[in-house]
């Protein structure tokens, strides 16, 4: 039983937070081994090759540490939540 590894086209690989031209240049330089040309999807690049080249897929910046608002008024669009209610909800929001 063989398993196929995911392969991304150059546009999809740009989700590594780099430009398509960077992916193309690395591929042309031979730094993304296993890349193959597909007539329907352009060049396909193995995910392992992207990771081995130091790219991080779906790299999201870490969230900023939330700081509850210092003061909340009833007319601020928060549905009339009092200061304590907003501060109590912040840890729950982080958890979710």
Task: Explain what the structure shows.
The chain has two domains: 7-52, Multidrug-efflux Transporter Regulator, Chain: A, Domain 2 (Orthogonal Bundle); 63-96, no CATH class. 33% of the residues lie in helices and 11% in strands. The protein is built from four helices and three strands, in the order βααββαα. It has a three-stranded antiparallel β-sheet with strand order 1-3-2. A hairpin with a 3-residue loop joins strand 2 (36-38) and strand 3.
In short:
This protein has 96 residues and is α+β, with helices and mostly antiparallel strands. The protein contains four helices and three strands. It is elongated and about 55 Å long.
Unreliable runs:
72-78
- CATH C-level of the largest domain: Mainly Alpha
Number of helices: 4
Number of strands: 3
Profile the largest sheet.
3 strands, antiparallel
Q: Assign an overall shape.
A: elongated
**CATH-defined architecture of the largest domain:** Orthogonal Bundle
Structural topology:
Elements: E1 7-9, H1 10-13, H2 20-28, E2 36-38, E3 42-46, H3 47-52, H4 83-95
Antiparallel strand pairs: 1-3, 2-3
């Amino acid at each position: 039983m063989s398993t196929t590894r995911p392969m991304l086209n150059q546009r999809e690989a740009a989700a590594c937070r780099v430009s398509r031209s960077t992916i193309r240049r690395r591929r042309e330089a031979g730094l993304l081994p296993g890349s193959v040309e597909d007539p329907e999807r352009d060049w396909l690049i193995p995910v392992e090759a992207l990771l081995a080249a130091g790219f991080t897929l779906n790299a999201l910046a870490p969230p900023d540490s939330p700081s509850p608002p210092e003061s909340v008024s009833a007319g601020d669009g928060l549905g009339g939540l009092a200061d304590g209610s907003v501060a109590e909800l912040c840890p729950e929001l982080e958890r979710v």
